[in-house]
Amino acid sequence: MDTSSLPRSFRLLVTGGGTGGHTYPALTAIRTLQGRLAAAGGTLDVLWIGTADGLEARVAPAEGIAFRTVATGKIRRSANPLKMLSAANVKDMARVPLGVAQARSIVSEFQPDVVLATGGYVAVPAGLAARLCRRPLVLHEQTVRLGLANRKLASSATRIAVSSESSLPLLPAEVRERAVVTGNPVRPEVLTGHPDKAVAALALHGFERRLPTVYVTGGAQGAQQINGVVRDVLPWLLTHANVIHQCGPANVDELRAAAAGLDPVLAARYHLTGFVGAELPDVLALADVVVSRSGAGTLAELTALGKPAVFVPLATSAGNEQAHNARHLADAGAAVALLGEVTAHTLHDAVGPLLTDPARRAAMAERARAYGRPDAADRLVDVLLSAASG
């Protein structure tokens, strides 16, 4: 978008959160819009409506973003419709009208140029309030299928930004014309890592650089399922690769004990850590193969970087979205998806060909990159600006 046409000041109301999957795309969009306006001499005024106990309650104030909470109702899902009528669900649903009234008051007072909703149950009252106050509403969906909150808000949206072309046919026909493919915003720092910095920061001096490096991650808390199967294949894995294993802070001692009997040469190729922080971009740059869950944020980062991945979806993810995400890339040859029971044997068979065949690894990297949208934040900001002006 031409910077000369940018507004001098812009008011953005953001709603969504609960998890990083809803929070970080919103934060990246805010930073991108802020940067674009600042470059043209403009200013951005942001207000975030979230939950008091969600990740956004820590992230927004830490970024200097004004933060408000409203009453929300969390729907506890069940395959049995009768179980959806649980006392807890009925009680929470009764809170939604209160949340909408509170959000309407906030929206009316703040008068945003546009409202961005990124999902999570807190987005419902604020999204409905946007409609009541006649403010443009842009939904952003991180996963292949619309999440529960965005399904509730779709008919109220001015534009629906989706992360993948394959989402379009899954949208209700009546809202499809309002959809645009932006991709899922990726934090820009993730794209600027350097392999040698990871080696220095983590003191990976026993790594054999002629071998590929595997990065294993189960998210901030680690994943017992992934930790267990990696532990069981470790001696074999370390004969073919270096391994950085982010296992979760609570699991370090157990895995360290399991690795204690390794041959010293193999042990030197194994870096075990509870948590990977600021060095994550460099670790990703060093990694030739990633073994991980398949949340929307992880997919966005790995495809933007063009990283071959073996996904072990979290079976309990909302709407089984991680399995859908993983299958979507696996069907295109852009990843391997381990669906169903995951054992040391299935992990061995999935990772082995990627480690021993550089050409196969390169082909998967290229297919992954074809799905990546490193410019997703800019595309989403374009949608926000056009919704506000249209």
UniProtKB/TrEMBL annotation:
The keyword GTP-binding does not apply. It is a peripheral membrane protein. Its EC number is 2.4.1.227. InterPro entries: GlcNAc_MurG, Glyco_trans_28_C, GlycoTrans_28_N. UDP-N-acetyl-alpha-D-glucosamine binds at residues 19-21, 187, 322. Keywords: Cell cycle, Cell division, Cell membrane, Cell shape, Cell wall biogenesis/degradation, Glycosyltransferase, Membrane, Peptidoglycan synthesis, Transferase. One of its GO terms (molecular function) is undecaprenyldiphospho-muramoylpentapeptide beta-N-acetylglucosaminyltransferase activity. It is found in: Cell membrane. Residues 13-161 form the Glycosyltransferase family 28 N-terminal domain. SUPFAM superfamilies: UDP-Glycosyltransferase/glycogen phosphorylase. Pathway: Cell wall biogenesis; peptidoglycan biosynthesis. Belongs to the glycosyltransferase 28 family. MurG subfamily. This is UDP-N-acetylglucosamine--N-acetylmuramyl-(pentapeptide) pyrophosphoryl-undecaprenol N-acetylglucosamine transferase. It comes from Streptomyces subrutilus. The lineage of its organism: Bacteria, Bacillati, Actinomycetota, Actinomycetes, Kitasatosporales.
